Amino acid sequence: MSDTNPPPFVRLLLSPKSYPHPAAEIKLVQTHISYVFLAGDFVYKFKKPVNFGFLDFTTLEKRQYFCAQELLLNRRLCPDLYLGTVTVNEQGGVLALNGPGKAVEYGVKMARMPEEGMMANFIASGKLDQAMIRRIVAILVPFYQQADGGPEIQKFGTAQAVSVNILENFEQTQGFIGCPSLSRQQFDAISTYAKGVLAREALFNARIEAGRIRDCHGDLYSANICFDGAKVHIFDCIEFNQRFRYCDVASDVAFLAMDLDSHGLVDLSRYFIERFVARSGDTRLVEMLNFYKCYRAYVRGKINLFTAHAPEVDAATKAKCLGLAGKYFALAEQYATAG
Which residues contact 44 (CB under 8 A, 6 or more apart)? Predict the structure, then answer.
């Protein structure tokens, strides 16, 4: 999503001369919350001063704090990838990266990952296989075992806490019911199913008692996984809102399983869950799987719906996102009717 009026530091960082290392060609990638500069062997990520309710980067102090959080949290899985925080400084009207004067912006510096190693590219080329899934599982199982699961985090596993995220999705999409991507029948089927599961409080309490509510990744899908030689990078976790990251491990892995389903890789999705359950010993995870797959699919549908209706997107992006939204809502309905 392009910003038509970017801040002055964006122009600075589009110049190769601004960097302390070779960067012959700079590429700027924008999302709705970030400016990402691909510069030589490194990536610089800066947060946009936006407030979406669930995320607030509107002040310099908040952006500084969440850059530090992004670094801290992502180093759990990618210590070699997240190199440090950086500043854009201003002195005498001149801006510089890590320069003299006061800090006017904060960012995160990362090592650049190989584009050909991105999991999405392996999916697109039909080359994702069981060996790659096993590599992911081998990282995730110890990650969840070591992740914080204390009393403050366990609270996010109750049916009441989970319902905050679930019901928020339905409230935010009410106005889109009847559009080509989301029918009344789909909305009713999905919301009725989800509310029915949420009413079974014992299911959620059992997950808490089993120690399955952890400080997870929060955004575990193919766009955030890269195969880099012997390493697997699982990056870009949710740093901006604890209620999206403090969750049942089942919710985290359900996102990747749903993502594989959405690409037609149902057998690999099933293999991923079977392998994860076998390695982790979490046999009751499957009881929650359809519920959380449904939730994750609905979120992806919602995000694409929002993007399609943003005033700054072009016609081609709008059409693509409406198509994706319809695909994800249909998938959510499949989980709801199967669950």
Answer: 13, 36, 37, 86, 97, 107, 108, 109, 110
